[in-house]
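Handout for the seminar on molecular recognition.
Each group receives one record of this type.
Step one: identify the two inputs.
Step two: read the structure output and locate the region that could contact alpha-D-glucopyranose.
Step three: write two sentences on what you found, then compare them with the reference statements printed after the record.
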Amino acid sequence: MKKLLFVITLLLAINFAGYAQLPKETPEQKAERLKWWTDARFGMFIHWGLYASPARHEWVKKYERMTNEEYEKYFEIFDPDLFDPHQWAKEAKNAGMKYAVITAKHHEGFCLFDSKYTDYKATNTPAGRDLLKEWVEAFRAEGLKVGFYYSLLDWHHPDYTIDRNHPQSVQTDEEYEKLNEGRDMDVYRQYIKDQVRELLTNYGKIDIIWLDYSFPSGKHGKGRDDWDSENLLKMVRELQPGIIVNDRLDLLDEEGGWDFMTPEQYKVSKWPERDGKRVPWETCQTFSGSWGYYRDEMTWKSTRQLLELLIESVSKGGNLLLNVGPTARGTFDYRATERLEAIGEWMKYNSPSIYNCTEAPDDFQKPDNCLLTYNPETNRLYVHLLVYPLKWFTLKGYEGRVKYARFLHDGSEIKFGKPRHNVTYQESKGKDDVILILPVVKPNVEIPVIELYLN
Ligand code: GLC
């Protein structure tokens, strides 16, 4: 009897504590669920909101410590008259991107979608409509998978407590306490759930969700308890069982608490691991130094740098999510369009070295100034020539492993050759090496790719 009582109390306690059981799956099941995404390798991030008008970073409200009243003018004039999501989708698709993730709500709290739970939404601006809906339809129509970014932070909601990242952040504990009197995170937590439920109910199948972000360390931060991360994630998985979720809910130690890691704005030095195991990952990167449209930001990466970033990500088993910050009129900046087109020109011929590809098996040595990718299904190895070699190109240790070699962009054969020599000097060749004889003139491709058919 005592034992039974204990069990009942325990069960009740667990229930009341509200611990959510996240769905469990085997590594194989997870790999299968993520397969379309790991095959796709390349997606578009879109940061678009009221901050497109000040055009000086999506954190402008925080950086300039604006109040809601001061920020209100951007709401009143938000009218992207040139917004054409079909054009955006075409640009993404032509660049070779296979999916896109857009900010349904960013930290400023403004919603691009028609939410029942707030007035702070596109519907109530001069735009006068649900812009997210148009976006989803246009991107899907181009065959792209669609994802939403939803900010856990909210600098507009009256119940969101002021923390160190908030525009109205202060110095002392007393000041925080005073400022937060009357703010009720319970209400805000419910708001997150209500809105995420809307996003995952009213727009059909959603392929990815970014819940961004947690900052639990130190004082006046926020993390899993503030968002009720476990229950939120549980709801997400119930509403959209196949959905792919990022890693910023502060649930890294929880089984099923995240699907992929998100190294932001840097190139990883090797395939990221957790507990000694390689994990799915995606680096998110801007064209220039800001996510939202920033008129005077000039540190634009070149097409060449962006291509290297893409290839290098795949060569370490990861994805690239490349961000566009559309303008307040609703168009892509001309520099973004230029680069997307140039990337598309390369992808048109070389995408087989990207899609369905991953890190090359360890026993293939990487030649100098090259990046390797590998397609395990076709058993082809791709050698990306970052510096174009002069004619003789040695693949150390590849002897007996290569059936055929060609340039990927035009399918032209690359012949196997013998070591260089002249009358007095003969270069020796390792017995396991393969020598390819390349044309002297670099093909008219930003980064030429050699495709090796392996035995
Ligand atoms: C950070 C920033 C945010 C941006 C995001 C993209 O979380 O706060 O502005 O949306 O990174 O990964």
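Reference statements: The first helix runs from residue 2 to 17. The chain has a mean pLDDT of 95.
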